[in-house]
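Consider this record:
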Amino acid sequence: MSKTITISIASLITVALILSIFDRSRMDYSELEEESEFITSEVEAYSEGINSILYDQNGEISYTLRADNQTHFKDGNTKIENPLIRLFQNKAPRWNIVANEGELMPSIKYFPSVLEEKTLKLSGNVELLGLDKFGNRVFITTELLEIDPISETLKTDRRVEYETTNIQHSSVGMFANLKDENIMFDKNVRGFYEKISN
């Protein structure tokens, strides 16, 4: 085999390898571009300094929601940072709830006339401060809490600390209906009651 043929074959192989590598890197870049477009296309809106007031069917304030910022996604979910939720009863604020972050997810809507229900999942240093029916301060802490602000129900499967003027409780898991002022603790319930003398 002559030197010219050997050099030509080697050159063709080299060119084919370069084209193959170039085509592969171009394909990887386009795949990366498609992925980044997909990621950015999921975010629908971002805003800072959130202050929302939500009303019930009678036009009364149901709850307010404040947050440092929110990111709304096309699937309907919204992530919020440092939320403060204030639940109202009889036109007066009764419960304040704070956390490090939250996720607001739409529930399934069965009837168009019904208010759109949303479920709020709070996480990180979740604290509830409110008043019971006797006007006593109630303080509840946990790490994860799911809230239905319309029905004013709360639930968690995490450790909960519950404290009032004369009661201290801890448990793993809790369900609370704030409208009925009914709180149920799940398991590992511990605590004590201190009688207040007149």
User: Anything to note?
Assistant: The first helix runs from residue 3 to 42. Confidence is low (pLDDT under 50) at residues 3-8, 24-41, 110-115. Residues 44-193 form a domain with the lipopolysaccharide transport protein A fold fold (CATH 2.60.450.10). Helices lie at 3-42.
